[in-house]
Amino acid sequence: MADLQGALEAIVAMVLDARGMPLSASCILNRAELLTALEDLRGRLPAEIAQARRILAERDAILDDARRERHRIATDTDIVRHAEAEAEQLLTKARDAAEAARSEFDTYVDGKLAAFEVVLSRTLASVARGRARLATPPPGTRDRDDRSAVSLGDRIDW
Q1: 136, 112, 132: which is closest to 124 by C-alpha?
Q2: Helix-strand-coil percent breakdown of the chain, rounded to 5?
Q3: What's the rounded Cα separation, in Å, for the pair 20 and 28?
Q4: What integer pLDDT is reported at residue 72 of this predicted model?
Q5: Which of 67-81, 83-97, 139-153 shows the lowest per-residue confidence on average (mean pLDDT)?
Q6: What is the pLDDT of residues 103-144, one digit of tens each?
Q7: What's the CA gap between 74 and 92, in Å, rounded?
Q8: Distance from C-alpha of 25 to C-alpha of 43, rounded to nearest angstrom
Q9: Which residues contact 130 (CB under 8 A, 6 or more apart)?
C-alpha cells in the first residue's frame, strides 16, 4: 500500500513540477515519463486491491467469529444464571422439606416419649407399691425377712 501511495505522489509531483503554459492552466509534461508512472500504478493497483479485499474478508471473518463467540458467551451466561436460580429454588425446597420432616419427626418422637413416660410412671408406681408391701410384713408373721410369709393371694401390680 505504501508503494501505491508513493507512485501516486510521484505522479502528482510530476504534474505540479511541470512547466506551465503562459496564460493557461495547461502544462507541458513528458508523455513517456507520465505514461510509465501511470502504467506502473495500473500494474500495482490490482494487487493492492486484491490484498485490500483479502484483508477485508479476513476482518469480516474475525468479526463473525467474535459475534458468534459473544453470542455463545451470552448464552452460556444466561444458562449459568438460569441454572443458579433453579439450584437456589431446589435448595430452598429441600431446606423447607427437611425442616418439615424434622418438625414431623420431633412431634412423632415427642409423642412416643410421652407415651413411654406414662408407662414408665405407672411402672415406677407399681414398683413403689410392691416395695412398700414387701417392707411391711403381713399381720400374723413374726419375721420380717421371711418371704414365705407373703401369701399367694397377695397381688403385686407391676
Answers
A1: 132
A2: 80, 5, 20
A3: 6
A4: 85
A5: 139-153
A6: 999 999 999 999 999 999 999 999 999 999 888 877 776 655
A7: 27
A8: 30
A9: 156, 157, 158
